[in-house]
Predict the structure.
Amino acid sequence: MQKDTSTSAPSTTSGRIRHRKRSNEVVPEVSKANGTKLLVDDKSKYKSMLIRAYSSIWMIGGFALIIYMGHLYITAMVVVIQIFMAKELFNLLRRAHEDRQLLDLGY
């Protein structure tokens, strides 16, 4: 036996209405034309498209060549890349040690 407290009329609250915080960004001018320079008439987009197409062809061809070369050449390439990476890491370690030595001198 519960008492029904729901009412069909909405309850009125005496609280304030909360608003979203307004943005403090600068409002763009409405009179300014949007996009005065269109890419339709830009000639450099074709140059960029050609560069991307040539790069894509070279990457696909290089990948096919690497796969075609076989296991031995791929293994040799991985070993060479690891040697160069280790060489670079040792150079970085040497430079860090030299920098630490310079700081110890008191300059």
Observations:
- The CA atoms of residues 65 and 99 lie 43 Å apart.
- The chain is about 55% helix and 0% strand.
